[in-house]
Amino acid sequence: MKLSRLRFNFGFLLEADYGTIRQIELDYPSIRLSEDVTLTPLVGSFTATRTTEGIYIQGQLESSMSLECVRCLEEAIVPINISLDELFYYPAHIAPPGEHRVGDDGMIDLAPLVRELSLLSLPIKVLCRPDCQGLCQECGANLNLGECGCEAEAIDPRLAVLQSLLKDEQNAD
Fold first, then answer.
1. What value does the mean pLDDT take over residues 77-91?
2. Whole-model pTM above 0.90?
3. Which residues are bridge partners to 32 per DSSP?
């Protein structure tokens, strides 16, 4: 198994006085956090502070992810802002269930946390651009590249009366 590039050794900080702070800068052109998440780039900084309960991580990271537009299925680059604000408990036995812990070796792997926060910051509906036209429902052509030439769909005969009302209203104006 490949080790995470967001794994940091804070053993020195565990031995330091409470309140000791370490500033860490990140500047990765691209980083793969898991099978489903690659951030390009990942930049920013965070502070690690020794507290009575462990190590408190706080900072701001910026990145982007390449996803698929829900309308046209083309690539959409989505900007991501990640706010780190998490306590890693040490020693591990004082951590409440489900909370983050500093490893016995003093290591903290931020990859799972950054992955989770990245996914949570994504919009529900990813669009390549706000005015994306999507795909033609008949032939599947990308309408952002121009008209596809498909005939306008014939109206359902049960709704033809409504169509005539719309035409009458347009003629009255």
1. 95
2. no
3. 38
